[in-house]
Specification:
The protein has a domain of about 150 residues. The protein is about 60% helix and about 5% strand. Helix 4 runs antiparallel to helix 5 and helix 4 crosses helix 6.
Length: about 230
């Protein structure tokens, strides 16, 4: 039984327990997908049954990761199925446990708010957005925000960070971002913000972009320009 309950794997060449970062990122991406579905479902339908189920499973998943063994976590097992043919990227287990502990604490709070007491409070939305930010950051960018907090809390640099960010080294040429590239991103974000603002402030009675009905497929609906 003791051999089943442990945290981190012993891998030759590493002097501390490690975990596969690719597997962790895949698991984070899977959880992010279902978290977004849960969030949008609750927002659009005002029904929280799916959210209650997801929060419960999320909490159980992180409990298994931290207190039993990450290899038995459903989300990490599913992630492993997708990345099992990729070369492992080993990272220190200590900072991952700290990061996942934050996720577990947030999930416990959400469990009491959403499942037990069913409170409607802004705290619920704030925690949900925070969890989405943590999951998206890791799955999309490979940036473990909880691991960064580990450095601030313990005042020590973690070992074997994702992408070797713990090591002090100069950026390679392909990683540098020029002023022109920053300008492109800025203009794109401004355009997106402007279009979003216009679409949100426009009266609902005005429909600027409406699809034309294809001949023979409109039924009794009124076709535009047809």
């Amino acid at each position: 039984m003791d051999k089943m309950i442990y945290f981190g794997e012993k891998v030759e060449g590493y002097d501390i327990p490690v975990l596969n970062e690719r597997e962790a990122r895949a698991g984070a991406g899977i959880l992010f997908l279902f978290a977004m579905i849960s969030f949008l479902n609750a927002y659009l339908t005002h029904r929280f049954a799916f959210t209650q189920i997801f929060v419960t499973l999320f909490m159980v998943d992180f409990f298994i990761r931290i207190f039993i063994n990450p290899k038995f976590s459903p989300s990490l097992i599913l992630g492993r199925l997708f990345i099992q043919h990729q070369r492992p990227e080993y990272v220190g287990a200590a900072q991952k446990r700290f990061a996942w502990s934050i996720g577990f604490i947030l999930s416990v709070i959400m469990f009491f708010i959403v499942v037990i007491f069913e409170y409607m409070t802004p705290v619920k939305i704030a925690i949900c957005i925070l969890c989405l930010a943590f999951l998206f950051s890791e799955s999309a960018f490979g940036v473990c925000l909880g691991c960064t907090l580990y450095h601030w809390v313990y005042h020590t640099s973690p070992h074997y960070c994702p992408g070797d960010v713990c090591e002090v080294r100069a950026k390679e040429e392909i990683q540098k971002v020029s002023k022109a590239q920053l300008a492109i991103v800025t203009i794109t974000l401004l355009l997106m913000s402007g279009v979003t603002y216009i679409s949100m402030t426009q009266p609902q009675s005005v429909v600027p972009f409406e699809m034309k009905c294809q001949a023979g497929k409109c039924g009794n609906e009124k076709c535009i320009g047809g």
